[in-house]
Amino acid sequence: MENNGKKKSDDSFPSLYLQPEKMSNHGEPDSKTSDIYFNIYPGDVLQDRYEVIEKLGEGGMGKVYKVNDLENDKLVALKITSFPSVNENNKIGMRFSREIEAMHQLVHPNITQVYTAGEYKQRLFYTMEWIDGCTLKEAMANCSQTVLLRIFMDVIRTIEYLHNQHIIHRDLKPENIMVTKTYQPKIMDFGLAKFTEKISRLTEKGAVFGTIDYMSPEQARGDISNIDHRSDIYSLGVILYQILTGKTPFQDDEMFVRIKNFFTASLIPPKEIIPEISEELSNTVCKAMAREQKDRYQCITHWMKDLQSIVEQNETQ
Hints:
Keywords: ATP-binding, Kinase, Nucleotide-binding, Transferase. One of its GO terms (cellular component) is autophagosome. Pfam families: Pkinase. Residues 1-30 are annotated as: Disordered. The chain is α+β, with helices and mostly antiparallel strands. The protein folds into two domains: 7-130, Phosphorylase Kinase, domain 1 (2-Layer Sandwich), CATH 3.30.200; 133-316, Transferase(Phosphotransferase), domain 1 (Orthogonal Bundle), CATH 1.10.510.10. The chain has helices at residues 90-105, 136-140, 145-164, 217-220, 229-245, 255-264, 270-273, 279-288, 300-316, and strands spanning 45-46, 50-58, 62-69, 74-81, 114-120, 123-129, 133-135, 167-168, 177-180, 185-187, 194-195. The strands form three sheets. A six-stranded antiparallel sheet has the order 1-2-3-4-6-5, covered by helices on one side. Strands 7-9-10 form a three-stranded antiparallel sheet. The chain has a two-stranded antiparallel ribbon with strand order 8-11. Helix 5 runs antiparallel to helix 8. The radius of gyration is 20 Å and the shape is globular. Mean pLDDT is 82; it is low at 1-36 and 199-208.
């Protein structure tokens, strides 16, 4: 899909659209899933406007609820921090604010739209569009490879737009990409997004962030100064690898072994796993996932053009 070239800002996160948590007969969360820091419950109304319907999920920064916007009479998703905005966890509030800033700068049909932002009981929150669909991870189990490749091409066009706005996502993975019932992707979770024209002090040198199966080698090393748009290209390469082969590379039940494989094991080309995959398509994935940044695609547009040509050629065969 083509973007409309405008700007906007906000965020979203991995566990954004999970199954509603189990409720007791009294409408309160089961004790096993209750958050010890903060909770809002079905029936609660925030700022006399947002009526809580159900909790959808939670992540490191906060929780997401399905709510009814009483003012506009429509369903929206509401994300709220678990901690007060000013306390010992102030970095969470700062990341949350950066997430909102990023999403409000981005106006694109494939990026989750943010509506409002505010504060409730000293917790920051924002509302965003409600997406009726599933994650890309779930779509991988139910859609044909042809459909998945079309979705992926829309994803890569969206990340091209993101990079053109001088923003790096830094946490691209199937759980952070929603897919609507019309197969339109929606990029979420900008909590780790980095503005390349600004100096970020929220991530300390040596800190490791992201999701191990999808993060780039430089992210895994905590090499903050070298993380750039090519880090997103690597993560997208992993996603495409998974679409083509049904699994991520360097898998192992033991986390230590997975991390070790990540740095030492050779990448098995997709074609060696699924012989029907074309040599050209397999090669583009391997190039996107090169361990050294200098060996990857240096620009997402170049990779996108290569992929477009290969996908179109495969569809005509």
